[in-house]
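Re: export button greyed out
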Amino acid sequence: MGWVDYVWMGILAVFNGPELFSVFGLPIPVTIIMVFAGFLTGVAVGATPGLAGPMAMAISLPILISVFGFTVDALLPVMGFLIGIMKGATIGGAVPAILFNTPGTPDAFMTTLDGHPMAQRGEADKALRVAHFSSVAGDTFSDLVLILCAPFLAVIVERYLDLPEKTALLVLSLAFVAAVIGKSVGKGLISLGLGLLVAYIGTGEDFYPRLSFDTQLLARGLPVVSVVLGVLILGEVFASLEDLWHQSRHGTRDRPVAQVTRQKLTGADIRKLMPFIGRSAIIGTIIGALPGIGSTLAATLGYTSGRARHARKGGSPAFGQGAPEGIAATEAANSAVSGANLIPVLSLGIPGNAAAVFLILAADSIGGFNPGPSVFRFSAEAVNPELVIAFGLFTTMMLANLMNWTIGGAFMRSMGFMSRIPQHILMPIVLLVTLTSIYVQETRMAAIWFTIGFGVLGYLMRRFGISPLPFVIAFILGGSLESSARQAFAATGGDPWFLFSSVTAALFMALAVLVTVLSLRKPKGART
Amino acid sequence: MDLHGRTHLVLGLALLAFALFTIFVWVPMDSATGLLEQVRRRVVIGDALAPTIAASFIALGSLLLIFEQGDLACGMTSRNILYLAAFLGILISSILVMLWLGPMLAALLTDEGYRVLRDTAPWKHIGFVVGGTAMVGGLISYIEGHLSIRSFLIGLGSALALVAVYDLPFDDLLLPPNGDV
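Workaround output, generated via the alternate export path:
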């Protein structure tokens, strides 16, 4: 079995997978339909202010697992759907930003700066086309980088990193996430520590499950889905509803104004936009490959870099006054994050953002695929099924890109009405759907109470300016960090300095300290 | 010290106290093995080490927080507490309705009791539909500042849609509270 065989098997796993139905005798594989459904859902969700890709992924995951079950055959349809949502949401976020000056997703904020002025000039259709083209171009570029880089990075990790180095790499990733997310290193560390602590409740190697207060309730550990969805989704619902509650009492809700004209992008337009798209796609891909740094920073950096170039060239209109280049610079950067974000997930097993957390959660829940360097363990004698799944995932990403290039633009432009759905109606429905999905998966009320408890924690974290993302990433990685450290400690014969036993491990640890110290010295405005 | 600086100080001190309690009381008393253990003449990492390190991160973060400048957009006011209490009140009441309505009605109206009926319509849907309607309708009404039939109809529609998604196509999936009662 060579590499080409694995790639081909991955493609076949998507196109020759279980059939959902047939059209004129032609079987339609379930994975393709799921990618398509996820993509359409993602565009609709992205176009709805208050809902974002990760929220839709969170809600749909338990439903998908209920539908497809816990077999290996479920991996590609379920993860294909989630990838479809991820890709669709990146283009959908620009719709309300341009039409109504309200970003559908946080990373589309910079799109409002030029998109809405264009809409006010009667060029909404052109602005949407620019956003779509730039977004899909950035996303496709980022996916190609992922497909080329992830396998090689994983092979390097497997070949050159031993247990102490892998443990040190996990420590470095967590330190990076804690240091760069949010406005304070202190808060990042608190979020990280809480996530790790929660991960260790009801676990351990002894017969007695540690930190369980000797209760059956905690002895099995906390349900992963309750902790992640509680902190990420319920916390967000609690906080958003409170903002709406305050707004309804002060009458500050914005009234949207729609404008539509029909203006196609010409070849000259595209040539003018390409330098901005290219530069932002590279910025977004680099940012996306680093765990913890979100698409909002990528959008800001892409926009800032594009603005400097535009000003140097004396372009008109200027950024902020309805320049299509401003939309292109923002959308290419924030969309380029989505593919690159999967580089640390697939090659190292380290989730870098909320969307990646749900992909890992899907893989964990279903089983048969453990994102990390072992996925890319190439074996010529026996088939490595995880490698086939990995190439299947790359195929679903390319399929979603194809859908994005072909029907994405028209579908995105038809989604303007989603911005009019009132958030205060949407959020309680999201809450009911989330709680029901969790119950269906866990089948015990305790899971609901845990979810609400972690929802309150997520709400408090948001109110105190503590980002919940380090918490969730630490919670997900807590188990692997401990088991990797235990194995490394045992393998080095109980050496207490095992994290500094080799040059690479010591370098990772030094970088972990350096990134934390440098973040402490950084001015507040410069943080993400 | 301004209000936001004080928020950081109070939050930092509270979390520091929690971290110290975890390191010195909770972890040692609630873990079967210590930081390091001797097993068959080999030293291995015990169950207490990982949570102790986790709590140390919280302690370190709290200390940094105490000495950091306050963030203008953070903190809890009485309005936040009022909102959260009312929100949780509606949420928890509707879940209790979801949990107990079916068993109560079954106890009142039948001889078998809910446990026998929990897999038959309409018993298996009663608690979920009424509780779900109350949750969505109650929360929408709370945000709008007045009760309205429309908000409860939206709640009813959402609950019925979830019954259609989970219960009608799948025999083996249980809606709340049918896995517990």
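Chain B touches chain A through 76 residues (CB under 8 Å). The button fix ships in the next patch.
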